[in-house]
Design goal:
- 36% of the residues lie in helices and 22% in strands.
- The chain is α/β, with parallel strands linked by helices and 469 residues long.
- It has three domains: 147 residues, 3-Layer(aba) Sandwich (Rossmann fold), CATH 3.40.50; 244 residues, tm_1862 like domain (pyruvate-formate lyase- activating enzyme, Alpha-Beta Horseshoe); 54 residues, OB fold (Dihydrolipoamide Acetyltransferase, E2P), CATH 2.40.50.140.
Length: 469
Amino acid sequence: MQDACAPEIEKDARSTAEAREKRVFIKTFGCQMNVYDSERMADALGAAGFVETGAPEDADLVILNTCHIREKAAEKVFSELGRLRVLREARRQNDGGNLMIAVAGCVAQAEGEEIARRATVDIIVGPQSYHRLPELIERRVGTRGPVIETEFPAAEKFASLPAPKLRAAPSAFLTVQEGCDKFCTFCVVPYTRGAEYSRPVAQIVEEAKRLAERGVREITLLGQNVNAWAGEGPSGKIWTLPDLLAALSAVDGIARLRFTTSHPNDMSDALIAAHRDLPKLMPYLHLPFQSGSDRILKAMNRKHRMDDYLRILDRLRDARPDLALSTDIIVGFPGETDADFEETMRMVERVHFAQAYSFKYSPRPGTPAADRAEQVPEDVKSERLARLQALLFAQQTAFNAAMVGRTLSVLWESRGRNEGQVVGRSPYLQPVYADGDPALIGHIADVEIAGASQNSLRAVIKNLDVYAT
């Protein structure tokens, strides 16, 4: 669809740039990788003269960084675009200014042509191309239709991005791997993020050192299939994730390491041993199993059976007895019977998860499962999900309650909502609240857990002068 407002863009963009610095507002949907990507978009645009703003009303450019994993992802994007169109028209009527709108991320990659047809946007950019945002903005100025860029490889993206902006925070995400070669039949990632790509060791270690220099104490390594990471080492030899974790453990200032998300088929002996041998690797692992039924796992193309998953868990717990687990579970996958679902319930009862993310299956356009005839009725999916979540929430509540009376090491990250309150994370990623001096932020302190709820812990800080290293 042709943009009727396009002839005014060149004049408006130039006059805005002359009047004041350009401002960008980025709204992030979905996963931690999108959070990381949004920060790097801001870095790329900062090098081009943009500064971030917390309100779309103040922005010259609004970016929706989208996620295609959650249900009705595209509909949420179109709803947001409708609100932005009203904001843009109001801007034009009030002061003749212009608001440029960009859609980035996985929905842009998967449904870029549909977005261009249905909505008035200026830029559509996939997750492997956002390093080109300054160039795409220049291309959009003076053109009549949206600029669509979804074809460049991940290697070019990471090589082209500027050094991360110095953002003060005790914890940070670091993307080390993108894409996936597994092709689970419910998943869009291979189509929106492409084939697996592993960043080289030198790039990752250098970024980790920069993070440590600005006060980051904890790094979470990100990837759609992060434990399949296989990056080029300094001598040209290919390293695996345990090698990388060992190298990052040696970075001064980094006290904690995590990684997510993993696939059971890539949980190697060496990676299991790393949980035993690396003290900085936190005792908390996110390892999706998706369904407790081998028949459904085969239909999902997961390439593992439940016995395989349970054997991995036994070995992990032998290596690290205090390890806690989280997982992903889909209910109502096409063809799932009551018996299949009961196998999932038995699996959850057997493992005892500290936390879990559970969802009703929803078709993703272009994935093999979307066209299967045996779609489970919505009311059946809802009933199964309610039963599953009741069990999962009970397990999470029990896990948190078991922390009461224990001493845990907490990385304090920010002020709490209440005056005189600080918030941090336990080794098990639980939010921990305590009355304490904001000077604690950025430090790791051993504290006594005095209370627990389903979602968080309450701690008592007895000695403000003693911080763990």
